[in-house]
Amino acid sequence: MTTIDWDADADSFDQEPDHGLLDPAVRAAWAGRLRRWLPGEPSRVLDLGCGTGSLSLLAAEQGHRVTAVDRSPRMAALARAKLAGTDAGILIGDAGRPPVRERSFDVVLARHTLWLLPDPEAALRHWSSLLRPGGRLVLIEGVWSGTGLPAARLTAALAPLTERVQHERLSADSALWGRAVDDERYALIARSAEARRHSEVVDVHLILRRGDEVLLARRSGTGYGDGLLNGPSGHVEHGEDVRRAMIREAYEEIGVRLAPADLRVALVMQHRGPGGQPRTGWFFEAEHGVGGEPYNREPHKCSGLSWHSLSALPDDIIAYCRAGLDAYRAGERFVIHWHEDGDPVVQAPDGTDRAVRLPATSGGALHHIELWVTDPGAAEKSWGWLLGELGYTPYQRWEHGRSFRRADAYVVIERSPDLRAGAHDRRRPGLNHLAFHVSGRAALDALVKRAPEHGWSLLYEDRHPYAGGEGHYAAYLEDTAGHEVELVAPDRTGPRCTAP
Hints:
The chain is an alpha/beta fold. The protein folds into three domains: 182 residues, Vaccinia Virus protein VP39 (Rossmann fold); 157 residues, Nucleoside Triphosphate Pyrophosphohydrolase (Alpha-Beta Complex), CATH 3.90.79; 122 residues, 2,3-Dihydroxybiphenyl 1,2-Dioxygenase, domain 1 (Roll). Helices cover 22% and strands 31% of the residues. It contains eleven helices and 25 strands. Strands 9, 10, 11, 12, 13, 14, 15, 16 and 17 form a nine-stranded mixed β-sheet that branches. Strands 1, 2, 3, 4, 5, 6, 7 and 8 form an eight-stranded mixed β-sheet that branches. β1, α4 and β2 form a beta-alpha-beta unit. It starts with 9 loop residues before the first helix and ends in an 11-residue tail after the last strand.
């Protein structure tokens, strides 16, 4: 196969009218063709083997958002200079496998590129996978002195990949080349199906709790979000359900052997990274200490593990992971996190939150609880701390009261003007105590240890933490006003998982 040394003579190559498009008439002819070939509305265009960026510039001038790829750093530099002032992105890489990660495009454009690749059919298969539904391939090729790709060969290769292929003969249009040509030059515009059955990658994410802390991993060498923190996670593989996938990923990434009984669904999130495809993520909660001590089993993908407080998460977390943890802490169960294409992978420095919380059905669920107290200040110190540790956030504040909210329910602490004299007595008819879920035994033990600092004392200490009977793990606390709280941790004593 004849090859061209693209770096050898880039400047003189750019002077050729059929490549550099410096002649106004040639430039106008190609601009006219692109208007016919590209969508009428602004679209995402991937220009492969862009050379000095001549076609990329024409597409950008017509309002399209262009990503241009060339394997030659010198060509990429010339294209970058030519496209200065536009929002085009210039990448250095192989046109056959462009370095665009999981982004998708409305148009994949390639001029005099495909014939240089070692396996044109494989390149076409990959390029087709980069198209959005209804997208199109625009291929400009030919045969020169017996070298190149006949249109019949590419049309046959495109048939199983696209819905229809349009052939345009370009040899007869001398305006495109600045002179008359007698070899075979053509364009193929291959369109994918307008509607495909929607499919999404399903991924799983582990929220491993150690009291108020959660385990995060710092990504390294993955090509996406490297240097940022993320929870242990991965994709569901063929034939797996989401729970089995989470058990496998937890072992593969951090060496923790979880059993199905160890997992609780924390939330479900549909998310999309910048320029990527939608995904559905299942976030599971598990307690530290169950299944072994976590360690880094994938040093080629992770530079280290670290624990972080849920109430004071660092800023350098991948945005959708941060959104998931924030929603989890707030008690939300269903979230959409949809990046705009220009968003950073990390949470935006300006604090822009792309998360949309979706309300779950609430018919018959508890709306709020109201506690009347004699000393709102003291109650705020004890109840405010405890509710904050349980994931509630300050909600309302007025002269004689406070409220704290988690998802759709909230707790009110108020000194009402209608309050009658006398102390609270939980042994009289009426409210005896409130009971709250706690994520696990470690979290419950941490709360009990710190509770005296915030005005709580432990009840039934001689029977703690099994005062509720067999299979019950709980703590009973009392504040200075005599209000009782029960904290209940799940009893996860099911069979251990013996295999990843």
